[in-house]
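Shipment paperwork, digital attachment
Item: protein structure file
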Amino acid sequence: MKANLHILYLLLYISVGLFSFDKKEELPSCELPKKIVDQINHFHFKEKNIDDNFSKTLISNFLRDLDSDGLIFTQKDVDELYKYESLLDNEIKENSCIFLDKVKAIYQKNVLETEKMVHEIFASDLKLNNGETYTFSTDEKVLYAKDMDALKKKWNRLLKYRLLVNYFKMNTDDISDLENLNYEEEIAKMVQETMHSNIICYFNGLMNPSNGMDAYVENIYYTAITNMFDPNSTYFSFSEKETFEGELSSEKKTFGLDLKVNDNNELIIQKIKNYSNARNSALEKGDKIISLKWNNSDDIIDIQCPDAGRIENIIDSNKNQNLNIIVQKKNKEQISVSLTKVLEKTEENRLYSYVLENNLSPKVGYISFSNFYSQSKGNKKSGIAYDFKKELKRLKHNNIDGLIIDLRFNGGGSMREASKIVSLFTNIGPIGITKTKKGEVQIMKDVSVGSYFNKPIVVLVNNYTASASEFLAAALRDHNRAIIVGNRTYGKGTMQVILPIKETDGNDFVKVTVEKFYRINGKSFQKKGISPDISLPMYFQNTAHSESKAPNALVNDVIYKKTYFKKKYNFPMSHLVLLSKRRVHDSNNFKLIEQIIPEYDQYTNQNTYNLNFNKFKNDYRVKLNVYDKINVLKKYTQNSYSPKYSGVKSSRPQSEIVKIEYNIKKLNHDIYIEECYNIMNDFLSYQNKIAAK
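Attachment content:
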């Protein structure tokens, strides 16, 4: 795992004390692993032998997940725990907690000792030494320090690394600021003070998770067990399940409060949403939150070292429907208010469509969405397919000649919703194939007569286009309904369901991979992804994560099942590819991206950092150089089309108007959408020439 991705939060951004795990009083922790394994093996696409090999891999993964940076355990601790490396399968089968209890004891002891040693390090100024380096690595030979003395030295080097990162962050906005930057002791002391304050929050969080350290360790263990089956099977506590489902739903229950942390590190109310019962209470914008507590309970929500987004997530995803909040008004008076959750439409899942037009060219519709959220219970007029069709109707009223569907960074969601969207563009026939653990093969069909939209489509994808998004792109390509443009996709060709674990009173759940899905030609994009018809360079294309890099990913295979369907268009792909390549070759922006790719690879893949100020400056120069170039790309303004909202903007609420205008601004600065627009025009021009002959 790379430094810039996994350690950045450690001293700056998050309060681990806000982790929320539900109480599991109903089921002893010793019994839950066996119930998890039994339930997953019963439903999972591919059963797993719970044997010594399972045990050896599990112990390694679990300890790495619990201490991913090697900042709590020492090699001595790991050697002690590895005495159990062939015994975890037996412990699971026998409902034994010997190993888990041992881990909890060592973890708790080491957290306390590590906190003490880190405060000792901060007691004296961090002095940079020319010969020191810090290495980020998941290799167990590098990950763990030999003993507590070596661990203290490792922390000392890590804090020097963070000192340098924060020093450069504080003093440089771009590469021009870097050249004349020197190390000044007074600035370094200011940085250390901020770091020390944040590290106090970090350890407060490690020692005081909302349900205790034992539950925190157990949660990671249960997750490690489920991940042994495949990377998409996982364990959920109740609140984690609520959060996950809320992200993939058009509606969710919430208390209707937007929170923020002010300059004094106080948690305050930033906004009270109109629909909530908080709107009719004594609460006001700007009130300082003193405490949060569930009604009829002694459970107090920790707001030390506050993180507004995380606290919002904790209170909205918890099983409790009633919350007591004590706030301090501007006149210093404190009041107590009881709130009840209400149902709201998920803000992130609001869908908007736009028209890209130019007086000299055809009109092209544009729709983008981040996931395939599902219908709300009892509300048929919800879900991404319903919203998508509504926006597509707007675009049809605008007489568009083609459609761009932007699936970049769309991680998937409901396959049912994805199937409904595919059906808008196809006629009766197959759209995909599924296969169960028993080998049962079933064709997924579009049963509707005719298609809702018959004009050509361009689908824009990247490395983070996954699962249901890949299914949509593949189905449209296989029917010759769309041209796929961008980068190879993520490669997740599996389906999951969330199931309650038996005898846990609705507190524990597993998300289980139950089926694999295939294209209508029988090919799978599992682990391989979908390669685009027209490739465009993206600066992260070599470093993006993918299913093929994930441990325990299911294999790619092919099934043989006859399917019959009519293809819509005969896209002249060689002609379209040639025209696109010419534009990309002549584009200064795409040339810049080609320059960024190796530099971004170098920056992202770097694991070892020299802690000498000037040598670190050289490493930091690489990073700033990359981001300076990325910022140049962001400032680019296209001139191929004028984007406009497909509906009547003035009829929308002000909050939505702001979002619509923001999206229009993005459409004006996105070279990938511009290239999709040009590809669409190339095809429409080709069509017109053929028709004229």
